[in-house]
Amino acid sequence: MKVRLGTAQIGLARYIGLWTIVAVVFAEQRFLHDDLLGHTWSMFDYLRWSLIQWYTWAALAPQVFRLAARYPIRPPVRLRGLGMQLPLSIGVTMAAQVIGAFISIFTEASSLREQMNQFVGQHFATGLLTYWGLFAIQQAMQYHDEKTRREVEAGRLATELAQSRLQALKSQLQPHFLFNTLHAIATLLKEDALSAEDMLLRLSDLLRAFLEDYDGQEITLRRELVLLDLYLGIQQMRFKDRLSTRIYVAPDTLDCAVPSLILQPIVENAIRHGIGDRLGVDCIEIESRRDGDTLRIEVRNRNSTLEKDGAAVGKRAGHGIGLANTALRLRELYGDAAHVRLDMMWPEGVACRIQLPFRVIEEFDDAPEIVTA
Q: CA-CA distance, 36 to 102, in Å (whole number)?
């Protein structure tokens, strides 16, 4: 059995035990006070009187909590702002005196009137303080519960906002990638119909992965590389011998969590600002390694340079949605624990370096099936 005090519940034995401790303390205090005056009763008498007084308040405390919850005092606290609590405190305190006096007539050789005089004269002020003490405890508990509720609600709203931002950022990648790929296929269709058909098959595999019910923000690096392989296959058909790729992946990083579609826009930028805008050949290098609690991923190309402001040199300066989207997603997912930056390579080339917290995850059972072409 439990006693309910506002939103809290306490076991009956513990509840009675707490009030018993209060009764014993006050009985001892009254005994010592009378001892200083030179006249005392037996310790049993003091304990009996104190138990009657405080057990009465133990019975009334849940009602005090209910009254405090129903008629709270709102800031600013002024005398007229006490509202219902001032008459209620007097009324409940008087009720405690009446109950205590009524019980005492069965243990004392005196009338109800005499016991009322004793209780009101000796315990009314203490009872009034007890009421306001219980009221303050209830208000403090309610304030704490409200603060906790607001913090939880604020955390929930912040999480929902972050998820909405992430989903919006992620959704930007799919049409952006699709339009670029369709443009590449349209260009190749006039030159090599068979290769264009193969590109369309690879694109359908990618779209299947994008459009199936899989809304997770993170996937394993292993799965991200499978998606990237489909994209690179499309680009290699477009640029043929001008484009080559090299992938260096540490085995212990394959099951590490990465944001889904984190590599595709970076690789797209590397190709677009490399051989997409410049003559010659290019090699796209992708490397992953673990550095303590950090996963480091690099995407490098050998056929582009950086301007002073960090933009890649080419007919279309800047990195558009790719790098900006990546930076925003990393900030939403990991805060300051992740970042992305561009660095110049010697003698020529640009490296995009991504830093993520190292965390191993398991692949979801409902993740879409992907078959490389």
A: 30
